[in-house]
Structures are given as C-alpha cells and as structure tokens.
Batch of 2 targets.
Target 1
Amino acid sequence: MSVTRGRGRRAMSTVTVRRLLALPVLAALATGCGIRATEVPTDFGPAPSRVHCSVSEPDISAQSSRGLAVQVFLLCGSALVAVDRTVSVEDGTADSRRRVLVAQELLNQLAAAPSAGEADAGYRTTVRDGMTVTGPRPADPEDTLRLSFPPGALAKSSLAQIVCTFSDSAAAEGDGSVILGGPDGAAPRRYECTDEVRAEPTSVKPPSTEVTDG
C-alpha cells in the first residue's frame, strides 16, 4: 500500500512539473496571438506638441534705436501671447495724433504675417489686412479709436488681438481697456482685455460696456 502511494506521488509530481514547464510556452503563444499578457493599464501621456510658442529673444536695444519698442498679441496654441515689435512715430507729435499713429502701426503689425521663426514656433494672426484707424469724432471721448470695420462684427480672436494690443500700448490710457468704434455712427464702446480673453481668445469675446462720458 505504501508502494502504491509512492508511485502516485511520483506521478503527481511529474504532472505538476510538466504543467509548470508548459506555462511559459502558453504565455508565449498567447502573446503571439495578440492576447495581452497583463491587465495592468499603461498611460504614456498625450502626444508631444510641436507648438512651443518660443522664439529666440530679439535684441530690444537694437530695435529701440530704430523706433518705439512695443508688443502685439498673436495667437499661439489656444491663447494670446505678446511678441516684441517696433513702431515709428516722429518726435514732437501731439498726444492725440500720436495715439492714432501708434494704433495704426500696431494694427499693421497685427495684420502682417508672423516671421519665419514665429511661424515655426506656432504663432499666427487672424487680423485682416487693410484695416485703418482714426481718432474720435466730435461727440466721442477724446481717447476713442475708430476702426474702418465695425469692432462687433470682427471674429472673436481678431477683436481680442486688437483690444489686448491697443489696451497695453500708448494707443490707450493703460488701464487694460480701449474705447473702440466703427466707421458708422454707432456709439463707441469700452473693451477690456481680461485674463479669460487672453487664455481663450477664439471662444471668449472681449467684454464691452457703453461709454457714457463724451
């Protein structure tokens, strides 16, 4: 009876060893058939983006020698990003005239295609070419800027670029807002460049309020 038990144990041990040896083979076959060998999820994160919104720093001192150093807001990724530019305004120009000249120069810069380096970094603009800007009409506040195209009819991103660029320049009063009007007789409105506008210019329109003081 003990002999029978010994034989039985040896037989069971042999079967167990064979089963263990077969496991790597089964795992290899399962992998070859496309069956996942593990249920542990893997997450390698989002695909890397080529848009980095970074260009080599310009020589500001050299730019300033050729004109007034300013910044304009371009689109990069889904936000507005300030880039350096220069504008030319003659010395001794009256403040009211200076404001309009600076605004026109900024508008031209916004409508111009980004440089090759800026384009490679992902910068772009949606401001239309050919727009002009004039000063206030008799009933307008003295710091009003009137565009040749109605501000309210501009695309959100275009209006955001203009508002944020103007409000951060000598074309406005420097309080984060700018008074804009169009070519028609409609009263001008005060537009603000907010954090939300800078973060989402394609979906958030610059907030505006009626101008009550003339």
Note: Helices lie at 2-32, 60-66, 95-111, 116-120, 156-167, 195-199.
Target 2
Amino acid sequence: MLIFTLYFFIVVVAIQLAYYLIVFGKFAFAKAHKSNPKKISISVIVCAKNEDENVAKYIPLLAEQDYPDFEIILIDDASSDNTLDIFEEFEKQYSNVKLVKVKNNEAFWGNKKYALTLGIKASKKDYLLFTDADCYPTSKDWITTMSSQFTMHKTIVLGYGAYEKVAKSFLNKIIRFETLLTAVQYFSWAKIGQPYMGIGRNLAYKKEEFFNVNGFISHIQVRSGDDDLFINQVAKSKNTALCYLPESFTYSQPKTKYKDWFTQKRRHVSTANFYKPFDKIKLSVFYASQLLFLLLATILLAFQYQWIIVLSLVGFRYSFTWITLGYSAGKLKEKDVMYWFPIIEIVLIFTQLNVFITNIFSKPVYWK
C-alpha cells in the first residue's frame, strides 16, 4: 500500500513543479516591464460604505495624483456614518471630484455592484481606474503607471494591491503571503494568456468593456465579485495587460484579528465558485496538490518508508517553490514573508481547508 502512496506523492510533487516553474515562473522570472505614459482621460472610482475615517485620510492622496486629466468619482453607498458629509466637503474642495449618492434600493439592497454601476454611469472618462475606500496609492504616479499599460488592444490592466506591514505580527505575514501567492497566480495565468481574476483594490479597464457585457448583470445575484467575477467574464489574452511596477501599487490596512481575516477569506473563496469551469479546475488542482503534498509526506515519513527518497523530494519541492516565490516577492516588495515561508504555507493551507468546510455549512457575510 505504501508503494502506491509513494507513487502518488511523486505525481503530486510533479504537479507542484509544473505549477511553480512552468506557470508561476512566467511571472517570477519575467523581465521588468516598462512604463510608457499615455495621455488618456481617467476616471478614478471609489465606492465607500461607512468608511469615514479611511476616506478622510486617503481621498486627498488620490486628489494629489500627478496626472493631467483625471476625475474622481466618489460613491457613497447609503452610509450611516459621516462618509457622505466628508465626500460632500471633498466635492467642494476639489474641482475634479464628483459625488454619487446611492440610496438603498429594495431589489439591490446592500449590493456593491449596484452602487458601482451608478458610479460608472456617472463617470465622464473613457478609462476607469478602481480602488477601495480603505486603500491608498504608493506614489503620486499611480494613475500614470497604471494607465501606461493601456494600448489600442489592451483594455484591461491588472494591478497589485498590497497590505501594510505590521511589526511583530505573524498574522500580518500570513495575510501578506496569501496576497503575494494570489497575485503570483493571477499575474502568471494572465501572462500565459489565461487571465481569470483581478482585485478591486487596484484594477483598470476601458469603460466599453463594462457596457459590452451589460456590466455586472450576469452575476448581479452574487453579492461579491465586482472585481474578480467581472474580470473572469471579460478578460482575454489579447485585451489584458499587467502592471506590477512599485509606483503602481496600492496599500491597505490588513486585518489584525484572525477571525476577521477568516471571514474575509470566506467571502473570497465563495466568489471563486462562480468562475469559469476551467479556472475553477486549475485553482482546485493547485490547492489540492498543496494539501496532498503535506499529508502524503507526513504519512510516508511517519512510516519511514523510503525516507531518503521522500526527504529528497520534499527538499526538491521546497527549493523550487522558494526560488519561484522569492523572485516574485522581490518584484512585489514582499521579501520578508519568505523567511517564514514553510510555516506560513502550512497555516495557510489548513486555513483554506477550514474555509472550504465552513462555507459548506454556512454562508459568509458580504457588503452591508
């Protein structure tokens, strides 16, 4: 019986090798891309619900962007705090700020996609750049750098949304490693020509892409996914570009409690259930191979069966994953999380398993 377990383990390591070196290597070992500034009009869109503290800090950073032609669309999604009041002050203060007030709609109550749709329709520019209310750009050249990747054919730009570093916090390292791994996946598959998702913290596309598919209508019943489900629907190899220059990053404050992060993960995983079939398969096979690698290695080593071969395969697997993720972490300014890589990976794998099981028995909480 153990001989078959060993053979299965070898297959799992081979699958991991294919993912990390062939797929993820497309991003990890790619040459640095360049920024070619464009003179196009941009609408920066921010949707907020009860985010008064964040918008007070971060909207001025958007208004101070060094870009010749842009507007900021601020969407207040029926906030019950001071968000609307702050937005109204910004509209008075900045000539390029436009406020969209969303009242609760019985058919779309609490649906962020409804609020975003109103904001997109109110925008006057042909190109849209999205970020969240709790995010801020890393430089005054954020708009310039993200928009530089647009061409006549590239009408979607996938960016990187990072999380702030928190000193002496292991949870923070887990969150940032998970964010790094997610980015490596969607950047790599896009480079291969199979884009499947983007993140609303840093995402841009031409407005016509939105109206060509009637916006979010095909997945309006899904409470989340205004970013990844939309990109999963419209992104193709010919229309999708990447932007991972440091000047293009956005940052946001990470969760500080495991329970809050776990709840956030539940929402993300539940949304992935609505991806295209092949996208679900390639993601499922990857995560299954990660879990099986740990379980099979543990079983074989516990019985000391061909332990030299098993340990050699374990060492080989950690070598190529560390190299691939290390190069990727360098590109995305996340090198410090790699020092804890093996431990973080184990915690993350079993957290994802817990998320999957929990979502079977209860529904996650969405935008309120």
Note: The mean pLDDT is 93.
